[in-house]
Specification:
This protein is mainly alpha-helical. Helices cover 67% and strands 5% of the residues. The protein is built from eight helices and two strands, in the order H-H-H-H-H-H-E-E-H-H. It has a two-stranded antiparallel sheet.
């Protein structure tokens, strides 16, 4: 029995009020049955079932990632931009690179004024340190506090290790397929973002 047939049978048997509409948000047979936007008429039912299964898996992963990210931010009392900044500072530290405010502004694509406010807030919360840059007197070196670094390892580090294990379980050929798929997906999302920015 295909994934879609299992799903539709389950929905048929479900009592009113138990249907989860989010489960059908990625199936073109439900959201676009006429094929106005998603052209799926040339796919066999089994192939379409598999494509939908891939999209549902992506949706499930993204929702899980968003939930865990929110929990991490709530635990450390930070917003998403703060977390991105801390991850950048930690990665730079591990690579032996000294972080400056300008580097962070470029990485986060925000203004220098916004960076200053963010760094003031993070320093006050004892997440970062600021010191004289060893080779540029005009710049300030930004570091991570030991306590925040330890918290990040316990949260972000553990998640990354588990993702690494999942990727390592794949065969080399499977990894190439996943790399190509995710690269194409990212390129598509970036293209859509540029189109939206142009409106």
């Amino acid at each position: 029995m295909t994934h879609f047939r299992q799903y539709t049978e389950a929905m048929t048997k479900a009592q009113p009020g138990t249907w989860d509409p989010s489960a059908s948000m990625v199936d073109p047979r439900i959201i676009d049955p006429a094929g106005s936007y998603v052209h799926h008429s040339d796919l066999k039912p089994e192939e379409l079932d598999q494509v939908v299964a891939v999209l549902r898996a992506i949706k499930a992963w993204r929702e899980s990632e968003e939930r865990i990210s929110l929990e991490s931010r709530s635990y450390m009392r930070l917003n998403e931009t703060d977390m991105k900044a801390l991850r950048f500072i930690i990665a730079a530290k591990n690579a032996g690179v000294i972080v400056t405010a300008g580097m962070l502004a470029d990485h986060l694509s925000i203004s220098t004024a916004s960076i200053t406010k963010m760094l003031d807030r993070l320093e006050k919360a004892k997440h970062i340190t600021r010191a004289q840059h060893p080779s540029d007197r005009r710049a300030v070196a930004i570091g991570i506090t030991d306590a925040t670094h330890a918290d990040a390892r316990d949260t972000i580090g553990r998640r990354h290790a588990r993702r690494f294990d999942v990727a390592a379980e794949l065969s080399p050929d499977e990894r190439e397929v996943v790399i190509r798929f995710l690269t194409n997906l990212a390129a598509l999302e970036n293209e859509v973002a540029k189109e939206l920015d142009g409106h």
